[in-house]
């Protein structure tokens, strides 16, 4: 593998065109851009045109159950955008922004890979245009207002410091901040209480940014954030602290989508970045609608497998935004199929048709999941150099038996030239008119029924059990009038089930809901399956140890 350049090397050697040139491909004039240097720009919300949104072709990219390294959804999304443009379609890719936590931790950045990247790669992975910082500041302003109200003698809401559920955030993996005590050191330092930090992508403010339809909707949702209870058990919301106006003010620029470019100088919009195992895992409604307003084809991705990001994209985001994809690309890798077929970690890259055959049922389940929404899937086999023709042909043959076209995608090594076949397959799926999208549950269903529908239809579970804390949580949700909201399942990304160890296509299992959280502002209920962490920790050897910058400002080690 030594002959291959790193993602960073490829990005640094690439020509970057002036962002005004990229904008012109979408018929955006220079005076409509808010420039961040010559390679990045903010886009005004006035570019969203609902009549054009309805006429555009939205393509969702999802994946099979991933290995820890991921299976290349972002890389495939960028490559598909390149391919669509190469075959003469006016296309834009719309993606999430990377979080610094994974960048410096273990997973790396989220700007694609190989010859299928968005650039400037370093900027996108490191702070970008400051959107994450704005989310962090808005979140922590609310925290400061909460503690200030606890301290107040004249304007106190009577908050119970034992029942405050809002946490501070920072965009870094720092496990020591998960549970802390604040307000120590005397009466001048506030009221002592337990608190903690989440990572910024897990903030409800991030979820709200991604669900907001406009600035007024943003303020309304911020005001609806549930803070906690008073001493006499009355609910308190951010609006009770008059927080929503100032929070929205901090987000005045963050609410605008960001325009960058691909390696082949095609437009890319990047905006928002919630995690998909604990939040909705998709970019903003505003960015998606902007892409659909500006191009005939809009390619977007949702985090992790179709059981997580795609389900939430379809049941939560599409329902709220009034949009629907015309086709869905399911990314699969032979290394992941080998994993699900029983291969050990050190065998993932070793060709083995038996492992691929044994792992195929995982891909089959994800194909069935997409069809359950009335959508037409196309499988993209994200090619690795260790893949064999026999293995790839087997996947294509098995997919054909399911009435699904599987296309080998070589976007990592060949960029858009390696995805022209995939682009044609996607256009064919769109033009077939076979997709007739419908969410898999009705929001008027009970909380239990919505969860059971997802668990049985999407995960393949036999049943759902609810722990005592979960049953109490349902009563709380009902008492607050939130029971008709959609559900955002917090579940491991490592298995179709709620058990990390169950690979492939598990059967005969019961999903257990341990407890509930809810995002009243974002507009969804969060059932917690297993132990989910909102503040990750760093690995034994963090990726940051291999990063550096020299005296000339040249970065190394970023991936």
TL;DR?
Helices cover 35% and strands 19% of the residues. By secondary structure, it is an alpha/beta fold. It has three domains: 7-129 and 254-432, Rossmann fold (3-Layer(aba) Sandwich); 131-249, Domain 2, N(10)-formyltetrahydrofolate synthetase (2-Layer Sandwich); 447-529, Formyltetrahydrofolate synthetase, domain 3 (Roll).
Termini separation comes to 16 Å
- Average per-residue pLDDT, rounded, comes to 95
Instruction: Provide the low-confidence segments as ranges.
Output: none
Provide the gyration radius in Å: 23 Å
Structural class category? alpha/beta
Number of domains: 3
Outline: globular
The largest sheet is:
12 strands, mixed
How much helical structure, as a percent, in the residues?
A: 25-40%
The CATH superfamily of the largest domain is P-loop containing nucleotide triphosphate hydrolases
The number of helical segments is 19
Strand content: 15-25%
CATH topology of the largest domain: Rossmann fold
- Beta strand count: 24
CATH class of the largest domain: Alpha Beta
CATH architecture of the largest domain: 3-Layer(aba) Sandwich
Task: Give a verbal description of the structure.
Helix 7 packs across helix 8 and helix 14 runs parallel beside helix 15. A hairpin with a 3-residue loop joins strand 1 (34-36) and strand 2 (40-42). The chain has three domains: 7-129 and 254-432, 3-Layer(aba) Sandwich (Rossmann fold); 131-249, Domain 2, N(10)-formyltetrahydrofolate synthetase (2-Layer Sandwich); 447-529, Roll (Formyltetrahydrofolate synthetase, domain 3), CATH 3.10.410.10. 35% of the residues lie in helices and 19% in strands. The protein is of the alpha/beta class. The strands form six sheets. Strands 1, 2, 3, 4, 5, 6, 14, 15, 16, 17, 18 and 19 form a twelve-stranded mixed β-sheet that branches.
């Amino acid at each position: 593998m030594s002959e291959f350049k790193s993602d960073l090397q490829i990005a640094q050697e690439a020509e970057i065109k002036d962002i005004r040139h990229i904008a012109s491909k979408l018929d955006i004039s220079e005076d409509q851009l808010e420039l961040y240097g010559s390679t990045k720009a903010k886009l005004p919300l006035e570019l969203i045109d609902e009549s054009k949104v309805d006429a555009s072709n939205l393509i969702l990219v999802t994946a099979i159950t991933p290995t820890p390294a991921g299976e290349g959804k972002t890389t495939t999304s960028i490559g598909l955008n390149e391919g669509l443009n190469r075959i003469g379609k006016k296309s834009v890719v719309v993606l999430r922004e990377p979080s610094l936590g994974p960048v410096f931790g273990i997973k790396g950045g989220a700007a694609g890979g190989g010859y299928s990247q968005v650039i400037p790669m370093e900027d996108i992975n490191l702070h970008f245009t400051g959107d994450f910082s704005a989310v962090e500041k808005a979140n922590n302003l609310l925290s400061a207002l909460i503690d200030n109200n606890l301290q107040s003698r004249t304007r106190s809401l009577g908050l119970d410091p034992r029942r405050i559920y809002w946490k501070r955030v920072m965009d870094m993996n720092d496990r020591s901040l998960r549970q802390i005590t604040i307000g120590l050191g005397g009466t001048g330092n506030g009221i002592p209480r337990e608190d903690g930090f989440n990572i910024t992508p897990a903030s409800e403010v991030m979820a709200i940014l991604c669900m907001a339809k406009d600035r007024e909707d943003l303020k309304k949702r911020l005001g609806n954030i549930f803070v906690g209870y008073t001493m006499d058990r009355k609910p308190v919301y951010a609006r009770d602290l008059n927080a929503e106006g100032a929070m929205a003010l901090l987000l005045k620029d963050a609410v605008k989508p960001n325009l960058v470019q691909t390696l082949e100088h095609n437009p890319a919009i990047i905006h928002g970045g919630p995690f998909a195992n604990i939040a909705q895992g998709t970019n903003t409604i505003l960015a998606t609608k902007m892409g659909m307003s500006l191009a005939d084809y809009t390619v977007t991705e949702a985090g992790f497998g179709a059981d997580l990001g795609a389900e939430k994209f379809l049941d939560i985001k599409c329902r709220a935004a009034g949009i629907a994809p015309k086709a869905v690309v399911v990314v699969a890798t032979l290394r992941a199929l080998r994993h699900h077929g029983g291969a050990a970690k050190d065998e993932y890259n070793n060709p083995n048709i038996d492992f691929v055959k044994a792992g195929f049922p995982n891909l089959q389940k994800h194909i069935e999941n997409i069809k359950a929404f009335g959508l037409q899937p196309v499988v993209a086999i994200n090619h690795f150099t260790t893949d064999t023709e026999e293995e790839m042909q087997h996947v294509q043959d098995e997919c054909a038996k399911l009435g699904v076209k599987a296309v080998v995608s070589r976007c990592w090594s060949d960029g858009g030239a390696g995805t022209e076949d995939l682009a044609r397959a996607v256009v064919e799926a769109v033009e077939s008119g076979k997709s007739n999208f419908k969410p898999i549950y009705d929001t008027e269903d009970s909380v239990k029924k919505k969860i059971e529908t997802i668990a049985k239809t999407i995960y393949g579970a036999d049943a759902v059990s609810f722990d005592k804390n979960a049953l109490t949580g349902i009563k709380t949700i009902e008492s607050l009038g939130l029971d008709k909201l959609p559900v955002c399942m917090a579940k491991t990304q490592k298995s179709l089930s709620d058990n990390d160890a169950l690979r492939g296509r598990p059967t005969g299992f019961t999903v257990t809901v341990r407890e509930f959280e809810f995002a009243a502002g974002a507009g969804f209920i969060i059932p917690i399956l297993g132990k989910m962490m909102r503040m990750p920790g760093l690995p034994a050897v963090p990726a940051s140890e291999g990063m550096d910058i020299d005296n000339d400002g040249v970065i190394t080690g970023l991936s």
